[in-house]
Design a protein that fits this description.
15 strands; OB fold (Dihydrolipoamide Acetyltransferase, E2P); Rossmann fold; 215 residues; alpha/beta
Length: 215
């Protein structure tokens, strides 16, 4: 897993980074402001650890709303005296939250919750001539909209389904992201990317303008 830390207390951020690294989680970066946090989206993190209150009156809750829309898991970091604020934060649907001061067990328990949720949703139901079958998400490279159909592309075959890309997106886990009105990609299969495109092996897929700020 790959994580980003958004925390304005340097010692707390360092403590979190040490815990994550010790437990084989890649720390893509740590920042104390939301502008940099948004830029971190381009690195395709699997989760964010997000402080609710940041310096300069920045609110982690607003960024939490964005992460929820993007289907990126996040864990709030909060102080024990922020009960009322936490009630507002819960409405943004974080995976969970940890309170300061926290220990390693608190952090790992929160992340294991995300791992369990991710592993529980790893197959996609598809309709074939033989009936309903299960397709492993790990076999999917990307999905492409074709009118009222969606083309699912795997390493070995193409599968056409009479379902919209939006509906497919709702069924897939957070390993997938929308980069264009016509494309959803498996983040784990991306081999290269720039501001305008992602590559899956030799296939180049466009990132549309409306999705650039999100990804």
């Amino acid at each position: 897993m790959k994580a980003v830390i958004v925390e304005d207390e340097y010692i707390v951020a360092e403590h979190l980074a040490d815990i994550l690294t010790k437990n084989h989680i890649v720390v893509l970066g740590a920042t104390d402001n939301l502008v940099e946090a948004e830029k971190m989206l381009l690195k395709l993190p699997d989760l964010f650890l997000l402080d609710i209150r940041l310096s300069d009156n920045q609110s982690g809750i607003e960024f939490g709303k964005k992460l929820h829309q993007l289907k990126i898991p996040f864990i709030y970091i909060t102080a024990n005296n922020e009960i009322e604020t936490l009630k507002k934060a819960i409405a943004t649907q974080p995976e969970t939250y940890i309170t300061k001061p926290f220990n390693e067990q608190d952090v790992i328990a929160a992340i294991e919750l995300i791992r369990l949720k991710k592993s529980a949703k790893k197959q996609l139901e598809i309709i074939t001539s033989k009936g309903i079958e299960l397709l492993l998400e790990s076999d999917i490279l990307y999905c492409e909209a074709e009118g009222s159909y969606t083309k699912i592309v795997t390493e070995s075959k193409l599968i056409m389904q009479r379902i919209t890309l939006k509906k497919i997106a709702e069924k897939l886990s957070n390993d997938f992201m929308r980069i264009h009105r016509s494309f959803i990609v498996n983040k784990q299969k991306i081999t290269a990317q720039n501001i305008n495109s992602v590559y899956i092996n030799q296939t180049k897929l466009p990132i549309s303008r409306s999705y650039k700020k999100s990804h």
